[in-house]
Design brief:
Radius of gyration of chain A: 24 Å
Distance between the termini of chain C: 11 Å
Low-confidence stretches of chain C: 1-32
Structural class of chain A: mainly alpha
Helix content of chain A: over 70%
Order of helices and strands of chain A: HHHHHHHHHHHHHHH
Largest interface: A-B, 122 and 119 residues
Radius of gyration of chain C: 22 Å
Shape of chain A: globular
Number of helices of chain A: 15
Number of helices of chain C: 19
Oligomer: heterotrimer
Number of strands of chain A: 0
Number of strands of chain C: 9
Structural class of chain C: alpha+beta
Mean pLDDT of chain A: 78
Chains: A mainly alpha (304), B mainly alpha (320), C alpha+beta (458)
């Protein structure tokens, strides 16, 4: 990990003014280092504890007084989760949850990113009639609490026969992701100097050509960031999924996890094991995409 | 597809034809083409359900009585709203929601800003630390809710176990039941989710500032506070706006956390508008009343977004 | 819908008394020599998929393991589309029935919940022969027949009984100390007041973490309160569905809960506990005496799952309150129904016949201690537990028989019982936690209930 960081500096490091390295190492810096480490460790502790719990025997997990240092590690929790161990609990359809979540998240991403990007480009380049209203409209969608959306959406999905299908859910997620994608891409496009567009127009390029050949390639990192956000938003969504999906045919991972927590209210270890399965893609994503994530999060504001 | 579109749009040769007027007209056509898909989808998934919800809030729709679905009586149109106004729990939920949003947003900003300042001073291991920092923000809120419900559990929770072992407390504390620890636990879980985002964005902001500004300030003898007040914060304004937008997304997702941790209970102590509406709708089957409550939630969200929108428009102007 | 409501209001809280008096021990032990019979396996259901939405959690799910036998014998494919605890499954069914998105053929049902579902479940009387129905407890079948339509086929019944720790109650030292402090001998509590004294005493002596406990949210707490209410001579509603629980009996019941919590005699997280949570506390050996379902007996008695209490507890009839004649005895029966929108009603009925057959019921009752709703099964479980080495194994069936015939009370049977409990339980929590005085809380509860019933058109 350190190696990666050194060979491929993150954008934040890239924008760090070069002469900071000339600063003398001060005792206050060392103090700051340690304080930062401590806080990060505290932030990471919950995740570490969950992972540890998933691999411990049940007796240790529920021990009173608590056993802090693991005495033994076991895969029992995962075996009963996957139904490999017939002696314990019946298997939970985790593989189905995984496939459903992946399908829904990928579909939603593939659809929302192009549509959102197109809208974002229009907002960034043209102050057309109603553009301010549209931007406000898109922003306002975020003010709508899921509770207000979920039942009407349930009825809507039922009327068009998309209840309990991955397509129906993907459609909703696509819509949920579009406003944020548009906002994100609008910021990215604004970073691209207008002079480039003007030069293209002078050369006789159309709007589409300017967008496709000049601006879009320059905004590619933004596209990456938008995709990650869209994917994760869909991967993590619970409220709407919990009402639109009803069976393992379409249930996603968060719904499965919530079901598990209500079904086995005191099986903390089983829940921890399920959580670990759910964390894996999130962690992989962070490791793979941290560069474009930082860029995506800070987009237009970084000038340089 | 792309070539077709390109050919259609290709202006005829010659500089004279490419006048400002035709370009504007073409721009309009082009922009509508670019925005129409987004608008259609958003109308289908947001506007239609919201309009329906608004309509239902004027009726006595009861989930298990299909005949009540569209019983709209003009004279009874505001009955649900009147009932809400009389309902102490609603006002409590409203107050809790405002408090929850104020505390989580501000605490995330302050803690995140502090961490960004701290991280900016770090001299080594910056890469791995930043990766670690990013992990919590990728977690599903459901997962975070479960995680903290367990930590704050009275009998087997990590927090009680640790405090009992260390001898800080002698009796287990019912964190999620007592006041004000219930609301605090929910806020801690939410802040845990949001702080990393804030610190990463603000860290990037801090690192983008030129050191010369600070060098000049040092020469003028400015204190740490003065530098913060007059250089760091104003220079980082765009980053704060970005953070606010991201936070508004996260706070909306906090419902999942609350749903798993307390679901508004016990005794409405941690009730938020979202959990109360959810209970009325599904458990109580009183969908009309629940819709009226959702509208209150929408109004609250809209107010928050309007403030944000003004900031954003200003920022967009600054950026050109 | 309306008519149903008014006829129901006339017979609130039908006592299912005698449900078991007739069936539980009646059949004698002669039958027990044969193997118990299966049912519902005769038809060829190859290619049919039967979907089921059922109750899950705890020992409820073990029964579904037998489904593989049904699948093998009939060729049908059974898919369980939803499992959740009582409240989850209730929510699930409600949304789907209401929206017309029924994706299951066989659905969970319950005598406390069935009035909500009358419009959405298939009347079952024509699918079963008289002989088949006669096997079930007649009073449950009668209670489950609304306007001539049989709503459900019962799976097993349950009634709350007193579980107590024999090691504490039998301790000579503690007995002596208790008599000295309270002026009467320490024995299994017969009144709610005694139960309170014992809880206070055991916690005061620091021999146990909690004197007693109760599940503190949703219908679980509203139902427990109901039980205290009628043991004190009160009720939630009068015959015309007017809320009347701000009575003297209501005050006594609410005060009992509030005092227990205020004095730390019940767990601090009581308002967050549901059935699994309280059972886990007793299993861990943290609770001296409390009201619990028969269904947990097998779990507590198993040294593998509960080494701290297995063999160290006894069971007794619920205590009485201010009304010295009435014992606690909140009761109900879990059951199966067929969805009206099911496309496979015949096949669904076959599955229900199988699941409620003598053999499957016996297996479930005998293993987990659920109270049987079939006379033939009752006889078998008594015989099967006659000499297991632990006298309680057999005694509890006799206790169950006594309780069910004398003390069986279902919650008020009106369609919005669950809506009512959902509105009421947070207020009850406020009383328990001390956020509201007993009087204010009860007054609010009664006012809210009247308001709710009014808005629902009663």
């Amino acid at each position: 990990m350190t190696g990666t960081a050194r060979t491929a500096p993150t954008p934040v490091e890239a924008v760090r003014p070069r002469h900071t390295t000339r600063r003398r190492i001060h005792w206050r810096d060392i103090g700051a280092n340690w304080l930062a480490f401590t806080i990060i460790a505290l932030l990471a502790l919950p995740a570490v504890w969950i992972i540890l719990t998933a691999f411990r025997p049940n007796l240790e997990v529920n021990a009173s007084p608590p056993i802090w240092i693991p005495q033994a590690l076991t895969l029992d929790a995962f075996e009963s989760l996957f139904g490999l161990n017939p002696a314990t609990a019946s298997g939970v359809p985790v593989m189905r949850y995984l496939t459903n979540s992946l399908t829904v998240a990928l579909l939603a991403t593939a659809l929302s990113v192009p549509i959102g990007t197109a809208a974002g480009y229009a907002f960034s380049r043209f102050d057309f009639v109603g553009s301010r209203t549209l931007v406000l409209l898109l922003l306002l969608t975020r003010a709508v609490p899921g509770v207000a959306l979920r039942l009407p959406l349930f009825l809507l999905m039922r009327n068009i026969g998309l209840i309990d299908t991955v397509h129906g859910l993907a459609f909703v997620y696509m819509a949920l992701n579009i406003p944020f994608t548009a906002w994100l891409m609008d910021g990215f496009f604004r970073r691209i100097p207008r002079e480039l567009d003007d030069a293209a127009y002078v050369d006789g390029a159309s709007h589409w050509q300017t967008f496709w050949k000049i601006d879009l390639p320059l905004a590619l990192p933004g596209l990456g960031a938008a995709s990650v956000f869209a994917f994760l938003a869909a991967w993590n969504e619970y409220q709407i999924a919990s009402i639109i999906t009803k069976t393992p045919v379409a249930k996603t991972f968060p719904v499965g996890l919530a079901d598990f927590t209500t079904q086995f209210t005191v099986d903390w270890r089983g829940m921890a094991a399920m959580s670990v399965l759910m964390m894996i893609p999130a962690i992989l994503f962070v490791l793979a995409m941290q560069r474009s994530l930082t860029k995506g999060l800070t987009f237009g504001a970084v000038k340089g | 597809m792309t070539t077709d579109a390109a050919r259609l749009d290709l202006p005829p040769p010659g500089p004279g034809r490419n006048s400002l007027l035709t370009r504007l007209r073409r721009a309009e056509w082009f922009t509508y083409l670019m925005t129409v898909p987004a608008v259609i989808v958003v109308v289908a998934v947001f506007i239609y359900p919201m309009a329906y919800s608004l309509f239902v809030s004027f009726t006595g729709f009861h989930l298990l009585r299909p005949d009540t679905t569209s019983q709209f009586v003009l004279a009874e149109m505001f009955d649900n709203y009147a009932r809400l106004a009389r309902d102490d729990v609603f006002w409590r939920a409203l107050w809790n929601t405002i408090l929850f949003m104020l505390v989580t947003v501000n605490a995330s900003l302050i803690i995140g800003f502090g961490m960004a300042m701290l991280l900016a001073r770090m001299t080594f291991a910056m890469g791995p630390v930043r990766v670690l920092l990013m992990i919590p923000m990728m977690f599903a809120p459901v997962l975070i809710g479960f995680q903290f419900a367990w930590f704050f559990n009275a009998t087997v929770g990590l927090v009680n176990n640790a405090l009992l072992t260390l001898g800080v407390i002698s009796q287990p504390v019912a964190w999620l039941v007592d006041e004000p620890t219930g609301m605090m636990s929910l806020m801690i879980a939410t802040i845990w989710m949001t702080v990393p985002v804030v610190s990463i964005v603000l860290l990037a902001g801090r690192l983008s500032l030129s050191e010369e500004l600070y060098d000049a300030a040092s020469v003028d003898g400015a204190s740490v506070y003065q530098r913060m007040r007059h250089i760091t914060v104003p220079q980082m304004r765009p980053f704060f706006v970005i953070v606010m937008v991201l936070l508004s997304l996260d706070i909306a997702r906090a419902y999942d956390i609350v749903r798993i941790m307390t679901d508004g209970g016990p005794a409405h102590r941690t009730e938020l508008i979202w959990t109360y509406a959810g209970q009325l709708a599904i458990r109580g089957s009183q969908f009309g009343l629940a819709s009226a409550m959702s509208m209150a939630g929408v109004v609250l969200g809209v107010a928050f977004t309007f403030i944000l929108f003004r900031q954003m428009m200003q920022l967009r102007k600054d950026m050109g | 819908m309306r008519d149903t409501m008014t006829t129901r209001s006339g017979r609130l809280a039908i006592p299912l008394a005698a449900a078991f008096a007739v069936t539980a021990l009646g059949a004698g032990t002669a039958l027990a020599q044969d193997d118990p019979a299966y049912a519902g396996l005769d038809k060829d259901l190859s290619g049919t998929t039967i979907k089921m939405a059922a109750i899950g959690g705890g020992s409820y799910e073990a029964m579904y393991d037998s489904i593989s036998m049904f699948e093998e014998e009939t060729g049908a494919n059974v898919e369980i589309v939803f499992l959740g605890d009582g409240f989850e499954i209730d929510r699930y069914l409600k949304t789907n029935y209401a929206a017309g998105t029924v994706d299951f053929d066989v659905a969970w049902n319950h005598t406390s919940f069935m009035s909500q579902f009358t419009n959405f479940v298939e009347p079952l009387q024509d699918y079963f022969s008289e002989e088949e129905l006669a096997a079930f407890s007649p009073s449950i079948i009668e209670a489950a027949t609304i306007d001539g339509n049989l709503q459900l086929i019962p799976r097993h019944a349950d009634i709350s009984a007193l579980y107590y720790r024999t090691d504490l109650y039998g301790d000579a030292d503690l007995q002596a100390k208790f008599e000295e402090q309270y002026g009467y001998p320490l024995a299994v509590p017969e009144t709610l007041d005694q139960m309170y004294d014992h809880a206070e005493f055991f916690v005061g002596e620091e021999v146990i973490a909690f004197g007693t406990q109760f599940a503190g949210k949703e219908e679980a707490v509203a139902g427990r309160f109901y039980e205290l209410l009628f043991a004190n001579g009160g009720d939630y509603f009068d015959a015309d569905l007017n809320p009347i629980f701000d009575s003297e009996a209501g005050v006594a019941a609410a005060t009992w809960m509030q005092d227990l919590y205020a004095n730390g005699l019940v767990p601090g997280d009581t308002p967050n506990l549901l059935w699994d949570g309280v059972a886990a506390n007793f299993c861990n050996g943290d609770v001296a005496v409390y009201l619990e379902w028969y269904g947990w007996y097998g779990y507590f008695q198993d040294p593998e799952s509960c080494p701290n209490v297995a063999g160290k507890f006894g069971m007794a009839r619920g205590p009485v309150g201010m009304d010295a004649e009435t014992h606690t005895g909140w009761a109900g029966a879990h059951a199966f129904s067929v969805a009206k929108d099911s496309q496979n009603k015949e096949a669904a009925v076959e599955l229900i016949k199988f699941l409620t057959s003598e053999a499957v019921s016996f297996e479930e009752s005998n293993t987990f201690g659920f109270l049987p709703v079939r006379g033939d099964v009752s006889a078998r479980v008594v015989a099967a537990n006659a000499d297991t080495g632990n006298p309680l194994d057999a005694e509890r069936w006799e206790l169950a028989n006594l309780q069910v015939s004398e003390d069986f009370r279902t919650p008020p049977l009106f369609a919005d019982w669950i809506s009512f409990t959902n509105e009421w339980f947070p207020t009850l929590q406020s009383i328990t936690l001390g956020d509201m005085s007993v009087e204010d809380g009860l007054a609010k509860g009664v006012a809210d209930a009247a308001d709710l019933l009014d808005s629902l058109g009663y």
